[in-house]
Design brief:
Length: 121
């Protein structure tokens, strides 16, 4: 093991040798507890980021479920739209047929009226 650093002007953290040199005092640190002063902050930041990522993934999952539901609704709506279009076409065809029948009946009435008048002559 290297000798401890004890220079009064040197303020370093030497992880390789497991020594912390601050000012003129030297303290040995065990390899298992050798954490930088900011390690706790980093662990907290990583934990917060992991929580945020988990929340994002959960939200993404809910969003995908909602999207799938909307897509199913859209398919159902398109089917209903096709049914309604078919019904409208059927009603328009029936309307056209009814109009043709009415026209024939009017012609028949006119013809009968014409025949009745002709009999009088």
């Amino acid at each position: 093991m290297d000798p401890p650093l004890s220079t009064p002007t040197r303020q370093t953290f030497d992880r390789g040798n497991n020594h912390i040199a601050l000012g003129d005092t030297t303290k040995e640190v065990s390899p298992t507890s050798s954490k930088l002063p900011s390690d706790g902050i980093m662990e907290e930041s990583i934990s917060q980021m992991a929580t945020m990522l988990s929340n994002i993934l959960e939200h993404h999952g809910h969003a995908n479920q909602h999207l799938a539901s909307l897509e199913a609704d859209l398919v159902h709506t398109k089917r209903e739209e096709e049914k309604l279009k078919a019904m409208i076409e059927t009603l328009e065809r029936e309307k056209s047929e009814m109009n043709a029948r009415v026209a024939l009946m009017e012609r028949k009435d006119l013809y009968e009226l014409f025949e009745a008048k002709m009999e009088g002559f």
